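Example (one chain per record):
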Amino acid sequence: MERIDLLGVKISAINMAQALAEIDGWIAHRQPNYICVTPIHTIMDCYDDPKLREIYNHSGLTTPDGMPVVWWLQFHGKKWAERVYGPDLMLALCAHSIKPGYRHYFYGGTPAVLQSLEDNLVGRFEGLQVCGSYSPPFRPLTEEEDLEVIKRINQAAPDILWVGIGSPRQEYWMARHASRVKAPVLIGVGAAFDFLSGRKPQAPLWVRRAGLEWFFRLASEPRRLWRRYLLGYPRFLFLLGLHQAGIIKID
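Predicted structure:
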């Protein structure tokens, strides 16, 4: 898949149908890959953390999660590019997986969130195969605990391992575990577990399409997210301007 640079992050110029087709290929060949969904705030995390940027740039797909990222791809001539947003990707892939019988595993969230997530998805998609889930503690796992989790996942034999432990923690986790778990597809989906379990409200579709989801989320969780949006987004525009002018370079 062709990629376009945005402040050093190589964004996959794709739409949802292309993402699903790529995932089909990985599963058919049992080829391990991970997917990073990429809004503006994760691009800023990558700008500040070269190791994280390397993880994104070595992914199977680094999808345009935010509308500004989609607009950037389209500005560079990739008119087919569309938003491949974590919750939408989860819903599309669940629907797509019924016929081939792909098996899903959920890693992240609390036990209550995982139960609600599974109930909602299985209720929405008749025949969806969920082969397991794991709610990790809010601390780093010991080596013994990590080995036990890998064993549990491999025994469940998922085709798709959904990782919802927040960025950048989930991207580091996927990069470390892609070669250790037998699932051919790992997808970091951030807040999708909370949205699709019903734990947190999701912005209306028209808000998401207008590129205003950041404002909805800021209004919903101002104390937690104000730094991300009120400081991070203006900083992104400033750095992008400097980068386009050739004043700063990113290795």
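Caption: The chain has a mean pLDDT of 95.
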